[in-house]
Amino acid sequence: MTAFIVSRLVQTDPLTAYDAWAHADRMREWWWPQWAETTYDLDVQQGGAYEIRSPIDGVAVSGGYTEARPGHVLAFTWLWDGESEADRVTVVFDPVDSATTEMTLVHVAPGRAYNPDYEQGWHDVLERFPASSDA
């Protein structure tokens, strides 16, 4: 089993940070902006589903939301196109002060050995998150 944690401090309140994950137009700005044709289909609610697809690069990930509490927690399954076993991802939004949030992402991959590329991928994506820095 693989599990790792990536944290970022973001210069915004927890609800605004959560909204950057919950709205396709906001996510488009930071998730995979280098792939202009990427589509973001998000139904962010418990029991909802998502799909992020980049036809140019041939990459897609999809899953379902298992917890969606605006400004607090967003949890979802994570399944790369062509894989059969889903990982679990949880993002927690903790206020540090009125203008700063610590965003902590926990990725658990029960059926996979550790691969540093997965962790590096999250670092790459979260480094583009609006006003983020390593925590």
Keywords, separated by commas or semicolons:
single chain, about 140 residues, alpha+beta, Alpha-D-Glucose-1,6-Bisphosphate, Chain A, domain 4, 8-stranded antiparallel sheet, 3 helices, 8 strands, about 20% helix, globular
CATH fold type: Alpha-D-Glucose-1,6-Bisphosphate, Chain A, domain 4
Quaternary class: single chain
SSE class:
alpha+beta
What is the top-level CATH class? Answer: Alpha Beta
Terminal CA distance: 25 Å
- DSSP strand tally: 8
Q: For the residues shown, what is the average pLDDT?
A: 92
**Strand content of the residues, in percent?**
over 45%
Write the H/E string, N to C.
EHHEEEEEEHE
Descriptive account of the structure:
About 20% of the residues lie in helices and about 45% in strands. It is an alpha+beta fold. It has a single domain, classed as Alpha-D-Glucose-1,6-Bisphosphate, Chain A, domain 4 (2-Layer Sandwich). An eight-stranded antiparallel β-sheet has the order 2-3-4-5-6-7-1-8. The protein is globular, with a radius of gyration of 14 Å. About 15% of the residues are buried. Belongs to the AHA1 family. InterPro entries: ASHA1/2-like_C (IPR013538), START-like_dom_sf (IPR023393). This is SRPBCC domain-containing protein. It comes from Microbacterium candidum.
What is this structure, in a nutshell?
With 135 residues, this protein is α+β, with helices and mostly antiparallel strands. The chain contains 3 helices and 8 strands.
